[in-house]
Amino acid sequence: MARDRDRDIQQAQRKIFFNEDTNSPMAEAFRGLRTNLYFMNEREECHVVVFTSSVPKEGKTTVAANYAMSTAVNGKRTLIIDCDIKRPRIDNAFDIEARGGLLAHLRGEKELAECIVRERYRNLDILPTKGSTEYTTEMFHSQKFAGVVEELKKNYDQIVIDTAPVGVAGEAGIISKHAHGVVVVCGYDMINKKQLMHTKKHLENAGANIYGAVVNRIDRSGYAYGSYSYYTDYYKYYNEYQQG
Prior knowledge:
Blueprint: H1 2-13, H2 25-39, E1 47-53, H3 60-73, E2 78-82, H4 90-93, H5 101-106, H6 112-115, E3 117-121, E4 124-127, H7 137-141, H8 143-153, E5 158-162, H9 171-176, E6 181-187, H10 193-205, E7 210-216, E8 224-225, E9 228-229, H11 232-242
Parallel strand pairs: 1-5, 1-6, 2-4, 2-5, 6-7
Antiparallel strand pairs: 3-4, 8-9
Helix pairs in contact: 2-3, 2-11
């Protein structure tokens, strides 16, 4: 039990809570998210989901990374793409080197295949990116980016895209045009109704299919590591269920 707890803490520090032998309330919450998104897209083609938020630090990268892990564990060939070029975090979450990644390919510096980190976990590939302060909206508007998504869809069952928060950049709406749906991650008590409605309007104006929202960072003395607490009610209900 102590060894499992130490492993969970180490994963939590990297913001990865889900793996195939995880039997925790947080893992069950992500299984629930996986199931809900599955029923929203039962087609045979590759399923592309965008994760965004209204402001930074609401936990969108954490939710996106763990959702990707959950689909990979479920046997889906999964790719997670870091499109938050201003503040990339996927490389840190999965403890890898970005090596230029998506940004290098969009600049014409590297071939796409060179930028993908293969089999970081079973069934899970990663397309990270290096951070940049340059104006990146045009890159995502480009036919080259559209071609990247279309090419990748041929090789995967699930593509997860982590984008910049709507409140600080406009890329999420642009990228949503290449996805089946968008999940908005909301940090509990971090944003107000006006900010959330702005995010909703921005995505709707872009023609995005908004799947729904994930409420994150709830801290009610639940199951938490550091400042993160996921689906606190799941912890209570899960323990009650396990105890009969």
